[in-house]
Description:
The protein is an alpha+beta fold. The chain is built from 2 helices and 5 strands.
Amino acid sequence: MASHNDFGKKAEDLAVQFLQKNGYKILVRNFRYQKAEIDIIAEKDNLIIVIEVKARSTDFFILPQEAVTKGKIKLIVTAANHFMEEFNKDQEVRFDIISVLPDEKGNLIIEHITDAFEAFDAN
Length: 123
């Protein structure tokens, strides 16, 4: 596995730990539908939370959350709709982004952006 894949996996694992410590119930990881993949689907406060994890080794060029393009949002929303139908969920859905970046000492810093985008942002 390439080192960037290892870093991405580590970032997702850290995001899951962060979410669990903050009262989120993890429903599924790496949910796939057609060309789309949702990193984490969780539940909290009777909401389904769809979480995109973005990790970068540096924010020199772009912040991790800026890498979530309209095309990516459209794929995530499509997969989220499929998840809701497949598992017969009728709760409200919120879309979050968790960014993971190293600080100057190399420690990984997590930023949780709640309600980062809405389904109609994909249009």
